[in-house]
Amino acid sequence: MKLSCAFSILSIVASASAFTPTSTSNTRGKTALSMSGVTRNPNFAKLQGGYLFPEIGRRRNAYLEENPDMADRIISLGIGDTTQPIPEHILNGLVSSAKKLGTKEGYSGYGAEQGMGDLRAKIADKLYGGIIKDSEVFISDGAKCDIMRVQQVFGPGVTTAVQDPSYPVYVDTSVMMGQTGEINPETSQFDNIVYMPCNAENDFFPDIDNIPRSDIIYFCSPNNPTGAAATKEQLEKLVKVCKERGSILVFDAAYAPFIRSEGVPKSIFEIDGAREVAMECNSFSKYAGFTGVRLGWTVVPDELTFSDGTKVRDDFNRVMSTAFNGASNIVQGGGIACLDDEGLAEIDVLINYYLENAKLLKEAMESIGYSVYGGSDAPYVFVKLPDGKKSWDVFSEMLEKAQVVTIPGAGFGPGGEGYLRLSAFAPRETVIEACERLKKAMA
Ligand SMILES: Cc1ncc(COP(=O)(O)O)c(C=O)c1O
Asked: In this structure, are residues 399 and 63 in contact, taking their beta carbons and an 8 Å threshold?
């Protein structure tokens, strides 16, 4: 006992003395900055610039610094953040669960890391019609956070495929986990990630037979940014290929409630065989305006296993139990209210509002002469730019000429070059104003 203590103290002293503090001096010779002796995680150095949305903000602020009189005119069709207030029944769910905490009988502290039983059961029943079990639903603080937790389950040793373009979180978290090499400056692609081109030419669905195998495939439908919702046949193909190749599909269904087309699946588990190959991340963010409230879930079926036969569900449960302490009890009360009949009706009204915005944006862009995709089963309108036009250039042109903020397709991966994403989450009057300005400025 004494020996091991002495050893550990000695080793601390040894490692401390191996560290030579470094510092820089300012012009007056005073020490301005001192650096730690900790090596930076090299994976973070591989990441490009900032995350996309802060970069958009940076460019918008740079424009405003040069044109301060335009501050009141800026309109954002950029980040996919909801703008409409939380409807009454759902809000009452949040308020009443907050009030319960102020009573002796209603107070609750830590809950189950996997979420409240009532909420898990209601998700399985109301949103999946019983095709998944309550115990397969893990409640969380949102889909983005769950994607990182999924990465923690898989670790650094897996290979990954993404739709190109795609929601940047799949690639960035793969890089952070150490699954990738460096970015190739010529292709703007990370080594060791399989980019699956999705564009107007292939109906925004990858030519999966001719794409190399990867361990994990991230697939988002309805898609951010393209607005494409994969058909049943396309998803059947995807599940079949995953099964043949022994790949795991991480299906992101965060925009499922926007699907209005008959027969288009809202969940991967509507596809036969998906339980053996897929898990699904989902969220109340866009359902109910919970982007700031924070509530999501991930479904991991019992049948999904690693090559040694162990259940993915068990490892996901281990991550949730270790690195997460359950979603807020107030917020879960709001989630339960979302899934009451009144809540579901309110969600329908909200989604219809955003879909009407998407229709207006689509019509406006078409009237300018662009080819336009998405926007009918998704809150995103994906605009094809004339040949040779760069998406960051058109982003700047729209900002300068119309003070409308959009998102360049290239921000979602090299396959997004030549497209622009418009978000339908702005208030109606803003959307109408943006359409008018863009029609004038870009015609
Ligand atoms: C495809 C996709 N998945 C997940 C998320 C994040 O969802 P959450 O707010 O639940 O973290 C977003 C947010 O824009 C998204 O576009």
From this structure: yes
Question: Which numbered atom of ligand 1 lies nearest the CA of 220?
Answer: 1
Which residue is closest in CA terms to ligand 1's atom 14? 80
Going along the chain from its start, the domains and CATH numbers come out as: 46-85+343-442 (3.90.1150.10), 88-340 (3.40.640.10)
Measured in Å, residue 412 CA sits from the centre of ligand 1 at: 14
The model's pLDDT over 296-336, given as tens digits with 9 standing for 90+, comes to 999 999 999 999 999 999 999 999 999 999 999 999 999 99
The finding on whether 144 has its CB within 6 A of some atom of ligand 1 is yes
CA of 253 to the centre of ligand 1 (A): 9
3-state secondary structure of 192: coil
Output the CA–CA distances (angstroms, integers) from residue 170 to 77, 145, 195, 201, 252, in the order listed. 23, 11, 11, 23, 10
Distance (Å) from CA 339 to ligand 1 centroid: 19
Closest CA to 427 of 378, 361, 363: 361
Residues facing residue 189 across a β-bridge? 184
Q: What is the pTM of this model?
A: 0.92
Q: What is the pLDDT of residues 160-183, one digit of tens each?
A: 999 999 999 999 999 999 999 999
